[in-house]
Specification:
The chain is an alpha+beta fold and 231 residues long. It is 40% helix and 14% strand. Strands 2-1-3-4-5 form a five-stranded mixed sheet, sandwiched between helices. Strand 4 and strand 5 form a beta hairpin. Helix 2 crosses helix 3. It starts with 14 loop residues before the first helix and ends in a 12-residue tail after the last strand.
Length: 231
């Protein structure tokens, strides 16, 4: 059986050339992946290698694929796996962070709807802080802790260190419950009370703590247990 490598394909039909002359939208998923992979193996063209990956994993699977899982595919060594993971992560960040900054988010619902992507498909607890200017516009967010499936511990100093760096006027804390039960635990309540008090001392108020589920959220502000949002 004859093996066709990239060099055997007419120049105008090669993925790089097609992207260059016809635009990126003209390429299939496997062709885009072939460009990222760059080369195949002595027995397999880069196009065949790209198809092998897509036959094994869907695009949604690739979003959270591990380094070791990629390396299990024949023809994918550590270097290719790392480059592919970096490309996937960068693409995700470009897409998910579009128009995130400098948008006025002055209710818990707006904050949840605009930032729930941060917790998409997360199997562990992730603790984020969102930083706002004095117009209640989002100027930044930072992942401060990624923990086990049922525990998230964040040192308060990390919350305020980033706030000072961004010259933030207020902070909203968010974390997810992978169980999808958004009821705050005793630890959630105690931690919230602690950081709200520290925010008052620091002069940078914690204006909400939002617990995120799959399609729902719990807002300490909405339940009257925290300072009001800036209006």
């Amino acid at each position: 059986m004859n093996k066709y490598m990239i060099k055997d394909i007419p120049v105008e039909e090669r993925p790089r050339e097609r992207l260059k002359f016809n635009g990126k939208s003209s390429l299939s998923n496997s062709e885009l992946l072939a460009i990222i992979l760059k080369t195949g193996t002595k027995d397999k063209s880069v196009n065949e290698l790209a198809l092998d990956i897509l036959n094994r994993y869907s695009l949604s699977d690739l979003e959270d694929i591990s380094l070791n899982s990629l390396k299990e595919i024949k023809g994918i060594g550590e270097v290719k796996a790392i480059e592919l993971l970096a490309t996937i992560e960068l693409g995700k960040r470009v897409f998910l962070n579009k128009d995130v900054k400098y948008k006025r988010l002055d209710t818990p619902e707006k904050i949840f709807n605009h930032t729930k992507y941060l917790f998409h498909n997360k199997k562990q607890e992730c603790f984020y802080c969102l930083y706002f200017n004095n117009k209640q516009e989002l100027i930044g967010e930072k992942l401060l802790f990624k923990g086990t499936i049922n525990r998230s511990v964040t040192h308060p100093r990390e919350i305020f260190k980033e706030a000072y760096r961004l010259s933030s006027s207020s902070i909203v804390c968010m974390h997810n419950h992978p169980s999808n039960d958004i009821t705050p635990s005793k630890e959630d309540i105690d931690f919230t009370n602690k950081i709200v008090s520290l925010g008052t001392i620091q002069g940078i108020p914690i204006i909400d703590h939002i617990i995120v589920g799959n399609n729902s959220f719990y807002s300490f502000y909405d339940h009257g247990k925290i300072f009001s949002l800036n209006k």
